[in-house]
Amino acid sequence: MFIKTKEFKQRDNDVYFIEVLFDKIIINDNYDGILILDTNLNLIKRINIFKGIIVYSLFIKNEEVLLYCPDNECIVHIDVSTYEYSIIYLKNGQENLIFSTLYEWNENGVVLTTHNDDFYSVYIRAKTIQKINHKELERLYPKVYELYQKLNNFKVVKVFSDEYEAIIVDEEHNFSMLNNKEQFKHVLKNLPSDFHDIEFRNGAFAVVNENSIEVFTSNDKALFFPNKNCIFLKARFFVKNGGIGLLALSSSQSDVSYSKIDMFEQQ
To answer: What is the pLDDT of residues 39-98, one digit of tens each?
Structure first.
């Protein structure tokens, strides 16, 4: 059973993304930077990056994160443990690239993939990005290369690159997890087609619609609803005290500057 334990309200912040990095939670601070919270939803740090920043997607590893900001023609690297950041500018045609959520971040660095099956290494210290070929990808980033090869055979709904897993869907609208060992597990059947986000962690699914979030575990099912005049935007699982919890991000339909995060924990 999931019980609501905490909430975090923002009355002057158009929060549109939320991500979990071990014992920290990050959200956008309007269009100026990010806020870092702990797993009790207490504010730890505000990082101002620049005015007008718009984050399209995030790539994470431990306590580091890359914010992909194509509208701003840059990628921002943040070390969440030190609160330091640097800006890597996209130039010479790189500003037209659209990176997918398939990536790998290992001791060799970071590799990002595009929807056109091109691969780019991000050199954080040098603040540069360089295209690499398939052979270099296989040699330097073997895990993501293996997953990339497997996913070519399926219709992909969402990729969890930090776990080398992906949610795929078949012709009968059954959703499954696929990993690098090509094992299928945790099949969901007959899901509604109008969800706009789906999350997976430790055998649990969260299916996000504007008016509800459904959570499926191996032995439980839960259904959450937003406050009146609010809609759900995102959901993320987190691990705390050995158990799994859910963070639900919602926003007011009449006031985009009002956002709320609800924390649900298993009892």
So the answer is: 999 999 999 999 999 999 999 998 999 999 999 999 999 999 999 999 999 999 999 999
Count CB atoms within 10 A of the CB of residue 164: 18
Closest to 238 (Cα-Cα) out of 60, 77, 30: 60
Predicted TM-score of the model (pTM): 0.92
Q: How many CB atoms lie within 10 A of CB 265?
A: 18
Neighbouring residues of 110: CB distance < 8 A, sequence distance ≥ 6: 59, 61, 66, 103, 104, 121, 122, 124
| Long-range CB pairs of 59-66, under 8 A, 24+ apart, other chains included | 59/101, 59/103, 59/105, 59/110, 59/112, 59/161, 60/19, 60/21, 60/105, 60/162, 61/105, 61/110, 61/162, 62/21, 62/22, 63/21, 63/22, 63/24, 64/105, 65/19, 65/21, 65/26, 66/110, 66/122
